[in-house]
């Protein structure tokens, strides 16, 4: 779906002309393109705020300046929503749409800069942050969380790459949303784990308490799923066709025994997990490179949990448990080699 369609639907929504079907289509596109959310939020602020009345000549002059700044947008039709009750706002929204359609450039006047905050847990590290509303988020290795200064004002919107555990403060009138590539999690007050690494084909949500709603596409159609405590929903990406959804039950209702969130307590927990999948987690956890000298070793499966501060401690346990491989760890180059016995 061309990105221009996204902006056309946004304009119709702001103007109050969007049909129920178009609003549903726009919501699905929003889930597919979370990176545009900050621009849309800024557009809505411009739309609803008072700005000076600008003459037609001044509008043309400003448009010409904008086209000079972003010349590649000239061939793109300008989609300007006509706001019947406040038509003097249309020029500001039009500028935003012109910039967004052409190049993603956000350009408007008399508007404050919205600071964006990033919380990053690099490979080999984990991080914890307390958000302005009192919600606490734990980030697993190789993850990033993004929010802006408007967080908590009208909504609580976050963008996640990687894995995080959320303990959400209850604010019934301020929705809490986490966007990942292709899906959105909506909650009011709850504890849940969300895993959505960009190099993995799945989005995994495990609900500890409260309730969450996931919005995604399945068979190219918008879907919604409501989770109850003790449930896990796994969305597996299908190129060009959204996700395939599958449900699981958590093995325990006690928070301290839920393997999906053991990582925040420095524990590796796994259940019939392939060595290949486990190696990917070890690479993020310890910021290392894992090399299998015999590919068949990737198919080995492990069940259990290990609480270890060093990679050698973890590998000693896995090696003894399996009895089928040896390992060599080059600490200087952070390379772990696994070979058959």
Give a topology summary.
Layout: H1 3-14, H2 20-32, H3 37-48, H4 56-69, H5 90-102, E1 116-121, E2 127-130, E3 136-139, E4 143-148, E5 156-167, E6 176-180, E7 183-187, E8 191-196, E9 202-209, E10 212-218, E11 221-227, E12 231-237, E13 243-249, E14 268-274, H6 275-286, E15 289-292, E16 301-306, H7 311-322, E17 325-330, E18 335-340
Parallel strand pairs: 5-6, 15-18
Antiparallel strand pairs: 1-4, 2-3, 3-5, 4-5, 5-8, 6-7, 7-10, 8-9, 9-12, 10-11, 12-13, 14-16, 17-18
Helix pairs in contact: 1-2, 1-5, 3-5
Key features?
single chain; 341 residues; alpha+beta; 7 helices; 26% helix
Q: How would you describe this protein?
A:
- Helices cover 26% and strands 33% of the residues.
- The chain is α+β, with helices and mostly antiparallel strands.
- The strands form three sheets. Strands 1, 2, 3, 4, 5, 6, 7, 8, 9, 10, 11, 12 and 13 form a 13-stranded mixed β-sheet that branches. Strands 15-18-17 form a three-stranded mixed β-sheet, covered by helices on one side. Strands 14-16 form a two-stranded antiparallel ribbon.
- Strand 17 (325-330) and strand 18 form a beta hairpin.
- Helix 1 (3-14) packs across helix 2 (20-32), helix 1 packs antiparallel against helix 5 (90-102) and helix 3 (37-48) runs antiparallel to helix 5 (90-102).
- It is elongated, with a radius of gyration of 24 Å.
- Residues 66-93 and 95-111 have low confidence and may be disordered.
């Amino acid at each position: 779906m061309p990105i221009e369609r996204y902006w056309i639907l946004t304009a119709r929504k702001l103007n109050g002309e969007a049909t129920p079907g178009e609003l549903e289509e726009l919501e699905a596109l929003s889930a597919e393109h979370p990176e545009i959310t900050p621009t849309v939020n800024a557009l809505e602020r411009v739309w609803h705020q008072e700005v000076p009345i600008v003459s037609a000549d001044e509008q043309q002059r400003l448009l010409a300046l904008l086209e000079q700044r972003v010349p590649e947008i000239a061939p793109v039709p300008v989609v300007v929503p006509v706001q019947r009750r406040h038509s003097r706002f249309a020029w500001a929204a039009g500028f935003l749409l012109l910039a967004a359609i052409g190049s993603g450039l956000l350009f408007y006047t008399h508007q404050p800069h919205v600071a964006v905050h990033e919380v990053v847990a690099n490979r080999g590290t984990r991080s914890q942050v307390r958000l302005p509303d009192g919600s606490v988020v734990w980030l697993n290795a190789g993850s990033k969380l993004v929010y802006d200064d408007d967080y908590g004002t009208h909504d609580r919107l976050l963008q996640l790459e990687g894995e995080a555990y959320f303990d959400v403060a209850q604010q019934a009138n301020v929705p809490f949303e986490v966007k990942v590539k292709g899906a959105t999690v909506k909650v009011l007050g709850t504890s849940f784990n969300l895993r959505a690494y960009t190099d993995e084909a799945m989005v995994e949500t495990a609900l500890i308490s409260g309730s969450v709603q996931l919005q995604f596409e399945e068979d190219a159609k918008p879907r919604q799923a409501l989770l109850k405590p003790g449930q896990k929903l796994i969305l597996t990406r299908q190129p060009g066709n959204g996700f395939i959804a599958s449900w699981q039950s958590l093995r325990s209702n006690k928070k301290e025994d839920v393997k999906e969130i053991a990582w925040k307590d420095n524990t590796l927990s796994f259940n019939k997990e392939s060595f290949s999948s486990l190696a990917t987690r070890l690479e993020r956890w310890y910021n290392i490179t894992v090399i299998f000298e015999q590919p068949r070793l990737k198919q080995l499966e492990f069940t259990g949990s290990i609480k270890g501060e060093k990679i050698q401690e973890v590998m000693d346990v896995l090696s003894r448990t399996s009895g089928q491989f040896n390992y060599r760890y080059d600490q200087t180059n952070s390379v772990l080699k696994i070979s058959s016995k």
